[in-house]
Specification:
The protein has 516 residues and is mostly helical. Helices cover 62% and strands 3% of the residues. The protein is globular and about 70 Å long.
Length: 516
């Protein structure tokens, strides 16, 4: 009788419950390095407590704070990796803030105001570059070293950093954490996660070492007192450039070097490498001889990034060519150099040899668009990312042609990716719009200037019209929160939404509302 009922249920389309196979249970057992023990509860069963290998409840009772921290960290790494990433980032900001609060961090050996300390720490860890004080003169060599440390660690990325720390504690990556990292890095399989982490660290260190020695001869010629001082300046610049941070410890910034190809050339190249993203670098290193084997993410990122670079370069040259406060008084070679730098820095680094505050309104608007787009996914750049932007364009083009699918480079982009792109873009636009309204209420600046500053903070670019140091304290807190949200928000939102894709046995009837 029971067998007959099961057959009838199968004919009616009723889904059957399957128990996990022995192979699936073995895979889950191998993918995790934790033992579980249920917690007693009077009302309802509570989630299982996760213990690292070799740790039992009895051992935990007799252990110290460090073991309890490991257990808590292991639980978060398994069940809430996105939340863990945010917690780790907050802890890093708190650590950098505490170091900058020391009297030896300032050139005057006096403790800096808390708002300046916190703003600088968030700007460094979020690799933004917006500053409320002059980095070259206000902070001591110790303070500048702390800023460089925050830039270096922050440039590795939120999810990457949390994954590394989770692996250090548990000695093995859990299945949920692997899934999150796979979604975030756009890799084709979980097996590439280890290779990606190695590529992140190796690429980051190698690129910054190469940039350091590329800058070193130029800094030696600047007449520093010692070779150590020249090396320190070159290393700081290399860290800032590759991580697209926008910090400069040169007196007068980059303005005195507006015609210096030796200084600005490595900035352009280093910004490009840091902004295309670690998955693209890994893919190129593996298939650099066979472009046909490049992943779709690599093709979209490179093509869109290069096209936007040319667009930014040409438009900045057109709008600022005759502006006497920017490109107008420069020779042709310097104009082209700064236009190319502007085409790159508006979407990531924020390093500029021109006075951004003196640019024309149409230039500010174009840079607003470029900053909002940003660089590549899982890179040191910010913004909504170039792949998000191009997916929206491809969707609009497919709709205009009447195509059912979004197709590019011989591949079809799923509608789930499109929904994710829309969500990320809307969230970013909402944050920028809300922050702009608040800043307009707190200050007396015009909309174009405030909007430029807000987008620069959210996209972690660091370009400024010069109003940031003069903002009231509450407005600085708003920009600081916007920098943090811009660096962590879109990344964790994309990963969290991607993991919430759940199948449904029952779907409502479809109906199309009017659009447009």
């Amino acid at each position: 009788m029971a067998r007959s009922n099961r057959r009838q249920g199968a004919r009616r389309g009723i889904p059957r419950r399957h128990s996990p196979s022995s192979h699936a249970r073995a895979l889950e057992h191998r993918s995790s390095d934790y033992s579980t023990a249920p917690l007693a509860s009077e009302d309802r069963p509570s989630p299982a407590v996760v213990y690292p290998r070799g740790v039992s409840p009895r051992v935990l009772e007799d252990s110290g704070p460090w073991m309890r921290f490991r257990v808590w960290f292991a639980r978060q790494a398994r069940y809430s990796p996105a939340r863990l990433a945010l917690i780790v980032f907050v802890m890093l900001i708190a650590f950098i803030t505490s170091l900058l609060a020391l009297p030896i961090a300032t050139a005057s050996t006096e403790r800096a105001p808390f708002i300046d300390i916190l703003f600088t720490a968030i700007s460094a860890v979020c690799v933004t570059g917006l500053t409320v004080v002059d980095t070259a003169t206000y902070w001591s060599p110790f303070g500048q070293s702390v800023i460089a440390l925050g830039i270096f660690i922050g440039g590795l990325g939120v999810v990457t950093l949390a994954t590394i720390l989770g692996y250090a504690v548990s000695r093995q990556l859990g299945l949920t954490q692997r899934m999150l990292a796979t979604v975030e890095t756009k890799s084709s399989g979980m097996g590439q996660l280890t290779a990606l982490l190695k590529a992140v660290i190796f690429t980051s260190l190698s690129a910054q070492i190469v940039l350091t020695f590329a800058f070193l001869p130029r800094f030696i010629t600047l007449g520093h007192d010692t070779l150590v001082e020249s090396f320190f300046h070159a290393m700081f610049m290399a860290i800032s450039v590759f991580n697209n941070a926008g910090f400069v410890i040169l007196s007068g910034g980059l303005t005195p070097y507006h015609n210096d190809w030796w200084m600005l050339g490595p900035i352009i190249l280093g910004t490009f490498v840091g902004a295309i993203g670690f998955p693209v670098i890994l893919d190129l290193s593996q298939h650099w001889r066979t472009p046909s084997k490049w992943a779709l993410h690599t093709k979209l990122t490179l093509s869109t990034y290069i096209l936007l670079t040319f667009f930014g370069t040409i438009t900045l040259a057109i709008t600022e060519w005759t502006n006497p406060s920017t490109l107008g008084d420069l020779d042709v070679s310097s104009k082209l150099l700064n236009a190319l730098l502007g085409g790159v820095n508006a979407r990531s680094s924020g390093l500029s040899a021109l006075d951004v505050g003196q640019m024309r309104p149409q230039t500010h608007f174009i840079q607003d668009v470029l900053m909002m787009i940003g660089g590549g996914s899982v890179s040191t750049a910010g913004g909504i990312k170039v792949t998000t932007f191009v997916v929206l364009l491809l969707a609009a083009a497919a709709e205009a042609r009447g195509d059912r699918d979004i197709e590019v480079f011989g591949r079809r982009i799923s509608h789930g990716v499109l929904r994710l792109a829309v969500a990320v873009t809307l969230m970013g636009s909402l944050l920028v719009g809300l922050s702009t309204v608040i800043l307009l209420s707190l200050t007396g600046y015009t909309l174009d200037v405030v909007l430029f500053e807000s987008i620069s903070a959210f996209a972690t670019v660091g370009l400024s019209t010069g109003i940031t140091p003069a903002l009231p304290a509450l407005a600085k807190y708003v920009l600081a929160a916007l920098m943090f949200a811009g660096r962590t928000g879109t990344m964790t939102l994309a990963a969290a939404l991607a993991l919430r894709d759940r199948p449904r046995a029952i779907r409502f009837p479809a109906e199309a509302p009017l659009i447009g």
